[in-house]
Amino acid sequence: MNLFLLLFASVITSNIALSYFLGMCPFVTISKKIDVAAGMGIAVTMVMTLTASANWLIQNLLLVPLGLEFLQFLVFIVTIATIVQILEIVIDRYFPVMYLSFGIFLPLITVNCAILGISLFM
User: Fold this and answer.
1) Is residue 11 part of a domain?
2) Domains identified in the chain, total number
3) Selection from 36, 16, 25, 4 nearest residue 115 by Cα
4) Is 109 strand, coil or helix?
5) Does residue 99 lie within any of the structural domains?
6) pLDDT tens digits for 16-58?
């Protein structure tokens, strides 16, 4: 029962899209087909996980010790863009049908406010 409550709390109450209302555009727009929506959900989850981890490391191991916190937004955006580009190359290489179905929405993950928000708020 505790595991269910933990899962419910993390999925519903701590969900970045539902609690902060960030990143709603791809969440609403691309969800017309279930397979495309699931693929985009996986892609956004991967980008959020990788960028939050990378940006935390960069913030705590590089920016703060060197006193460069004022570069936080610029560094975070470059990190996010790099990870999205790598993900785009991987999806294009290994999942070409999914890559074509995403269209413009895959590169738009870079400017998704939820991706930057997870790095700043968490």
Assistant:
1) no
2) 1
3) 16
4) helix
5) yes
6) 555 555 555 555 555 667 777 777 778 878 888 888 899 999 9
